[in-house]
TrEMBL record:
The keyword Nucleotide-binding does not apply. Keywords: 2Fe-2S, Iron, Iron-sulfur, Metal-binding. It comes from the Bacteria. This is Oxidoreductase FAD/NAD(P)-binding domain protein. Residues 5-105 form the FAD-binding FR-type domain. [2Fe-2S] cluster binds at C241, C246, C249, C257. One of its GO terms (molecular function) is metal ion binding. Binds 1 [2Fe-2S] cluster per subunit. It comes from Thiothrix nivea (strain ATCC 35100 / DSM 5205 / JP2). CDD domains: sulfite_reductase_like. GO terms for biological process: pyrimidine nucleotide biosynthetic process. Its cofactor is [2Fe-2S] cluster. SUPFAM superfamilies: Ferredoxin reductase-like, C-terminal NADP-linked domain, Riboflavin synthase domain-like.
Length: 277
């Protein structure tokens, strides 16, 4: 019998420092069976466990086609992630997953795809970009919109340069606080919608980041005539078990870990911004 709470050992194949407090761990299971059987969908997450320290839910940012190696981009925000920041290539970590409902990639085929993210919220949609990059002919336009508080907070700068070269792809970046060398917009990511080139009746939007940003972005998308059913949000709550048993991530009548983290807007719109949810 499989134990849903038992992590499997994975080796850190590579560690990439993305920013002073942000790093990526490239992992591979040590068990050949786990290597061969593991698969995930864009938008899903793993629970990463560090012995003697604790466990945290982290989105998978790599392409599902190469599930033998999988990446997690992590921001140092607490005790567990601070300890994980000390890990190096050759170290080991516990992994269980993948969990949750991912992005609606099948529904997105043949359509304009808008990715609207804020802060490190871009991490859950990076796997979408990698997925589309390998299957670019299946989708129409790709619009990547990213907002950060300070220009220096932007990570994946080299990746953005590469993504900008993809066919039929538009990159829109904004920072609230800019530097003299910032070549993009100043302001909020939601202000960039007026510059985005897409067909509202053939568009699907995927949002991730601070909840208030997603609220505003959802409203702006509706004003641009994107259907509510075509607006998807990746929610974040304090997840412990990842299988819907502990109740820590309850969101109304649903659980973020099991029923999400990705939800269509109509399923959660009444709960957005409400204290206690």
């Amino acid at each position: 019998m499989n134990n849903a709470y038992l992590p499997h050992e994975a080796e850190i194949v590579e560690r990439i420092q993305e920013a002073p407090d942000i790093f990526t761990l490239r992992l591979q299971f040590t068990d050949p069976y786990q290597q061969a059987s593991y698969s995930f969908a864009p938008g899903q997450f793993n629970m990463l466990y560090l012995h003697g320290v604790g466990e945290v839910p982290i989105s998978i940012v790599s392409d599902p086609d190469n599930a033998n190696l999988y990446d997690h981009t992590i921001r140092v925000v607490g005790r567990v992630t601070r300890a994980m920041a000390t890990l190096q290539a050759g170290d080991f970590i516990g992994v269980r997953g993948p969990y949750g409902r991912g992005w609606p990639m099948a529904e997105a085929e043949g359509r304009d795809v808008l990715l609207i993210t804020g802060g490190l919220g871009c991490a859950p949609v990076v796997s979408v970009i990698n997925f589309m990059q390998q299957r670019r002919d299946r989708f129409a336009r790709l619009i990547i919109m990213q907002g950060v508080k300070h220009a220096n907070d932007l990570i994946w700068r080299e990746q953005y340069e590469g993504w900008a070269q993809l066919p039929n792809t538009q990159i829109l970046l904004a920072a609230n606080e800019t530097t003299p060398h910032w070549a993009f917009d100043k302001g909020f990511v939601t202000d960039l919608l007026d510059k985005a080139i897409f067909e509202p009746d053939n568009a699907i939007a995927m949002l991730c980041g601070p909840e208030i940003m997603m609220q505003v972005a959802s409203q702006r998308l509706l004003e641009h005539q994107v259907a509510a059913d075509d607006i998807w949000l990746s929610m974040e709550r304090n997840m412990h078990c990842a299988v819907g048993h502990c109740g820590h991530c309850q969101f109304g009548g649903q659980f973020i870990c099991k029923d999400g983290p990705v939800f269509p807007l109509p399923a959660i719109s009444r709960l957005l911004g409400v204290k206690g949810f």
